[in-house]
Amino acid sequence: MNYWLFKSEPDTWSWDQQVAKGEEGEEWGGVRNYQARNFMRAMKVGDLGFFYHSNIGKEVVGIVEVCRESEPDSTADDPRWDCVMIRAVEPVVRPVTLEDCKTEPALKDMVLVNNSRLSVQPVTETEWKTVRKMAGL
What we know:
The chain is of the alpha+beta class.
């Protein structure tokens, strides 16, 4: 299993909206960055990820699961763009902010800490466990 982080501006697509989609989940579309697209192409059903509110809050607020592997993005007219489908698994007990991550030595190499602009990014197993613990899970 691999771990990921999915970033969304909460005024565009929030954790509450993701939760409301239920078991069906939601297409993680609209990504127009080749590196992020390639990460989605590597995802497998059952992979887990952090749902991160960017811009407003800048914090991990929930856990999601990949429920459909990469397919063409329905929001794109260009066949180069793909997306996965994700569903909410559980909220965090305590949101973990970007500042929290920056001050945690175990997360010094985390992509979020070093390239916070990338909308879909990998998370190592150690980072996954560290953030989950920080989040009260």
